[in-house]
Write a structure and sequence with these properties.
Elements (H helix, E strand, L loop, with lengths): L3 H5 L7 E6 H15 L4 E5 L1 H5 L3 H11 L3 E4 L2 H9 L5 E4 L8 H6 L3 E4 L2 H13 L5 E6 L14 H10 L3 E7 L11 H19 L6 E5 L1 H6 L7 E2 L12 E3 L2 E3 L12 E6 L2 E5 L4 E2 L5 E2 L4 E6 L16 E4 L2 E6 L7 E6 L36 H7 L6 E4 L28 E4 L15 E3 L3 E3 L10 H25 L2
Parallel strand pairs: 1-20, 2-3, 2-9, 3-4, 4-5, 5-6, 6-7, 7-8, 8-9
Antiparallel strand pairs: 1-12, 10-11, 12-21, 13-16, 14-15, 16-19, 17-18, 17-21, 18-19, 22-23
Length: 485
């Protein structure tokens, strides 16, 4: 009988994993840097374990690509990077807790400060460790209402900075609340307040080297907010939120950034079953087969981070074919159905994600880009700890997915137990990410499309086909009006 030590030392063989393309990550960094220009410093945000991709591996790759700055939430996210040998500058974007200041100075981290006690604590730690000038970045609350000093409280903080002999106010920052809403008046108001704060700082004799306020949305849509440093987050991992104007989604023109998804979630088929028509499947029989069905069981469930609200609504890719998900009813497994091509065509409903609350130890729900339904951060960060991250330098091989105008037949022989990789749920790198296409990417791997029975690429044709009867009727009416006696 194996003892406990032997059991713990075994290698996990469960074939469910997240593949992270470091080459795609590096390419995305180059894309952002090229977009903002060489004169703007890119602070690559790797908070929340690099949005679930693996902070250490991603930070190393970004540093190798030329990233001089990395952004994290707090000290506990920065320590593993330093222990892994990452030497890039690290910005603690949400400050620090009392008692962490000595470790911050010792590790050469750059804290964000906005309260007098922040400055006093770091000043004492720098003096005790004989550090002549430790850099800090001042954060100003210009309208987000979250972190930072208000304009009214700024004079007191500036005074504290001027008396701190061991600190250098290297930067000044703020955070935009509505960077993706193109007609939001609050953005201009925040810019005005931020410029006023910068003038107050410089008039007091303090000269910050870095001025930054642009997150991913502002990097893409608001050049005037770039200053000389930007803080892209989800864009580095291949995604960004849709832009809006007058309450509607807008795209095109400059509202694009050609980034590519970095993470692909994969598994392999655990078991195959055949069911007759009108067979109820899963807890509560929530899914009923419409025709004889070929059903695969996948070793993935909500314990892995897959949301139970996607039951009967998502889909996967099996050997270059889509297959709808059926009832992910347990923590460990879910089903995916492939209808027999001899009797019926495959039905592939689109997914409509709704994300669960993420664990506070993994990711802060009040962190930037934390929109519940429409951001990648929740999916990346909540992808379960049971999923090993497999990082590799080579670019992911493009996967072509067979498409059809309406429904398509998926050959059952294409499935096999334990052999073909299954992409979870339905995302592949070649599909466009920007909101300019007929569909928009909502967190990774998912497409939302007005049609429930058709591919996004067929959406334009669907609309056209629906218009044909209307156009035909219009032609008939015009003909009758002109030629009737």
């Amino acid at each position: 009988m194996a003892n406990t030590t032997e059991t713990l030392s075994r290698i996990a063989t469960r074939p469910t994993w997240a593949a992270v393309s470091l080459s795609a990550l590096r390419q995305n960094f180059r894309t952002v840097q090229k977009h903002v220009g060489a004169g703007v410093t890119v602070c690559a945000v790797v908070k929340a374990d690099a949005y679930g991709h693996g902070a250490v591996e991603c930070s190393r790759a970004l540093a190798a690509e030329g990233a001089k700055w990395l952004g994290v939430t707090s000290l506990d996210e920065a320590i593993p990077l330093r222990e892994a040998g990452v030497e890039a500058r690290i910005l603690l974007m949400t400050g620090f807790w009392r008692g962490e200041e000595s470790e911050i100075v010792r590790l050469g981290l750059t804290p964000t400060v906005w309260e007098p006690w922040h400055i006093e604590s770091v000043e004492k730690a720098a003096a005790a460790l004989h550090v002549p000038r430790h850099p800090v970045h001042l954060k100003v609350d210009t309208g987000m209402g979250r972190l930072g000093v208000s304009l009214d409280g700024l004079p007191a903080v500036v005074a504290a900075l001027k008396t701190a002999k061991h600190l250098v106010p290297e930067g000044i920052s703020t955070h935009l609340a509505s960077s993706e809403i193109m007609d939001a008046p609050s953005v201009a108001d925040q810019q005005r307040r931020f410029e006023e704060a910068e003038r107050m700082l410089r008039s007091a004799g303090l000269e910050p080297s870095f001025v930054h306020m642009a997150n991913t949305g502002a990097v893409i849509s608001r050049r005037e907010t770039w200053n000389n440093m930007v803080r892209p987050g989800v864009a580095l991992y291949g995604y960004y939120l849709p832009f809006q104007r007058a309450g509607r989604e807008v795209s095109g023109g400059t509202l694009r950034l050609p980034v590519k998804p970095v993470l692909t979630w994969k598994t392999r088929i655990l078991s195959l079953r055949d069911f007759a028509a009108d067979q109820a499947l899963g807890y509560g029989g929530t899914y009923v087969t419409r025709a004889p069905a070929h059903v695969a069981v996948l070793p993935v469930g909500y314990a892995d981070g897959y949301n139970r609200q996607l039951s009967n609504r998502g889909r996967v890719i099996v050997r270059e074919h889509y297959a709808p998900m059926v009832s992910p009813e347990s923590p460990w497994e879910m089903k995916s159905s492939c209808l027999d091509p001899k009797t019926a065509s495959a039905w592939t409903p689109e997914s409509t994600p709704s994300w669960p609350t993420v664990p506070p130890t993994k990711f802060s729900a009040t962190s930037p880009n934390a929109s519940p339904e429409s951001t990648a951060t929740r999916w990346f960060s909540w992808l379960g700890y049971r999923q090993p991250r497999t990082c590799f330098a080579k670019q992911c091989q493009n996967v072509k997915v067979n498409r059809g105008l309406r429904s398509r037949k998926i050959p059952a022989p294409a499935w096999d137990v334990g052999k073909a990789d299954v992409l979870l749920p339905d995302r592949v790198n070649p599909l466009p990410v920007s909101p300019g296409s007929p569909f928009r990417i909502v967190p990774p791997f998912f497409m939302v499309c007005p049609s429930q029975r058709n591919d996004a690429h067929g959406l334009g044709w669907q609309i056209l086909l629906k218009m044909i009867p209307v156009v035909r009727l219009q032609i008939v009416l015009i003909f009758l009006q002109r030629f009737s006696p």
